[in-house]
Amino acid sequence: MLESGFLIGIAGYVLTAFLSDYIIGKFSDNGHHRSVEDSMTSIFVYGPTGY
User: Closest by alpha carbon to 43, among 3, 32, 31, 51?
Assistant: First the structure.
């Protein structure tokens, strides 16, 4: 039971990180550091939200 909950949590983290990367890339006005903004915000802000 614990293993399946852990795997679901990891899957939620990854899915949310990828979805937020798409959303940030689509709506962000930052043209100079877009890739850095996308990856950092997805991993550190939205990823834990999905976990």
Answer: 51
Q: Cα separation of 49 and 12, whole Å?
A: 9
Average pLDDT of the chain to the nearest whole number = 75
* Burial of 42: CB neighbours in 10 Å, binned 0-12, 13-18, 19+: buried
pTM over 0.85: no
Asked if the model's pLDDT at residue 50 lies above 60, the reply is: no
How many other C-beta atoms can be found within 10 angstroms of the C-beta atom of residue 1?
Answer: 5
